[in-house]
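hey can u run this one w/ pyridoxal-5'-phosphate bound, need the structure tokens asap thx
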Amino acid sequence: MQYVSTRGHSATPSFSEILLGGLAPDGGLYLPQQYPQVSGAELDQWRSLSYADLAYQVLRKFATDIPESDLKALAHKTYGADVYCNARSGDDASQITPLRTLEHKDGNKLVLQALSNGPTLAFKDMAMQLLGNLFEYALARKGAELNIVGATSGDTGSAAEYAMRGKQGIRVFMLSPHRKMSAFQTAQMFSLQDPNIFNIAVEGVFDDCQDIVKAISNDLDYKAAQKIGTVNSINWARVVAQVVYYFRGYLAATDSNDQKVSFTVPSGNFGNICAGHIARMMGLPIDKLVVATNENDVLDEFFRTGVYRVRKSAETYHTSSPSMDISKASNFERFVYDLLGRDSVRVKALFDKVENAGGFDLTGKPGSDGDEFASVIKYGFASGRSTHDDRLATIRFVQENYGITVDTHTADGIKVARENLTPGVTMIVLETALPAKFNETIREALGRDADRPAGFENIESLAQRFEVMPAQADRIKAYVAQHTGL
Ligand SMILES: *Cc1c(COP(=O)(O)O)cnc(C)c1O
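ok here u go:
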């Protein structure tokens, strides 16, 4: 299996060659040359597999340059019940992503698939835990080391740190805005005592952190000398790891391949739902893929109108589903590449236009950039948006009717899913976080605290390890260099 850049760069690297990197050299994103196909007979065999064995079966179609026995061991190391032990009472942790039926009436079935039972209580663990093990394995094979520098406002940073803690050959330097994260999120990250994890609390806002990471990435000499890498959501291995739970959700919700299911996905950077698109392209019988956004509705706007219009930072709202607060969707280019019949010249022109003119238009109207919006429907996509009031109402509705507390992002998904039901087709909503992470809004909706999984009761009182630093790229570069010893 070889990979291509969405913008047409001539090299066709293997899985291992793109594993530790991010963007392709031409600024594009990697995708496989062709999507591997899954036959009906294979799907039937996969029905009885454990999550780890299913992950192995999916991974081996994409990571063809890693020996199969190694891949199998990595899948088992990653997807064990001990890692996903934060399942709510009544759920079976050994299922890794257990399903729970909310509603079953008038031929409509609404199901939640829990992706947030990992160490940081959000779906990013599903992919990041695999990435940690793959990175350690690949670095050991090359005798190399990697220093990950990232910026976080919450979920991504903690998922990365819990995935990389204690890993050989890897250090993590995570920048976060000083005193701007919730007490719970701060405690999750800063209580880690592993010597390869460095928390840097930057005196500034999230954008300052991101600017510093960009400045480091743009300093190519420094980046090479310090062996700097990233783990952002465009990383191809993260997307592949996410493909697995679409198969799992489908297989757990059906008993024959003649049945179809739909998925609704609380979306920000389009990473999660992009994996659903890939599963569908591999032959998984998915009816609809429903994009749910919050007030930051760049994606909902595209899927309703055919116009992709990225927002400026000042137009990006801080919402109560903060992990979906984006101004542009960094994985969207992967879908556009398929939508345009894999025409990399046009993809490059469109995304150059995003940089220069803030977006593009595929409505086919005079002066537009193409007419492919008409074919979006063939890929099963639909969309909807949810606001703070919708979120509160949905959290209350789900609590009152089903006795389950859902987090704010999942609530956005349920709200939009209920508007997109098709009779006779099971709708699976991906649960992307546990409510304990977003307790302020749970209190607002329900007038009480969200339950915390065992072991998280006193997390705010644990000793914290972090360095406060000014928002100056040079100071942070020096700090990193001092701790890598390179
Ligand atoms: C990251 C995140 C999302 C958005 O996922 P994308 O892959 O960026 O679309 C949704 N919900 C939660 C809780 C998240 O952490």
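The two ends are 35 Å apart (CA to CA). anyway lmk if its weird
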